[in-house]
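Record type: monomer structure entry
Structure origin: computed from sequence
Chain ID: A
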Amino acid sequence: MTSDYPIETVNPYFKNRRLSIMVLHLFTGFLLLNIFSEWHALKSESAVPWLVFVLGVGEMAYALLAFRWLKGAHMAGVLIRLLAALVFFVYGVGLWQRGHPAIAACMLAVALFSLLVALLENRWKRPFIIRLAEEGVWFPRLFRDELLRWNRLNRVILRDDVLTLDFKNNRVVQLMTRTNYSGEQQDELNGFAASRTGAPPRPEKDSGR
């Protein structure tokens, strides 16, 4: 019997942030189109303004299609966000050199914010894998996994493709799994968890008394 059980579940963080991610992409696209209009007004012969225009349109399109794309194109939004951060940074440096420090500082702050959001999006879109191990339950957090020691848990049960973490402080976390587990697999996992928590692997049935 193995002593390490990885369980991929639906990401509870990403699911609740899809709308905010869509709004951020829409706002970023709006800023990029404004930057394009500024650069285009300078009658630059460079192709850079038009690349910014394409990126801005891409941001807007991604925002409008986000609820469909976010299910599959995990890296598309992150890549667009990184490119936008680069544009904001270059534009901010240019404003600074032309003697507009206040606006330049705002653009550089937006560039930094876009970079941070890209890193967060990348983290949210990774497979959400909970691992049951000898030392406890490894639970994914924003920047790194947290170890939930077994002495913090009453029981851990996998049943009907729902993983339940029952904490001793009366908090219960339930997550849908992305894999269909057979009855034998569930019994093995539940048996391992029960051996660590000291709880029975299955809830006791009502005896009818």
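Annotation 1: The beta strands are 4-9, 128-133, 136-140, 145-149, 153-159, 162-167, 172-176.
Annotation 2: The first strand starts at residue 4 and ends at 9.
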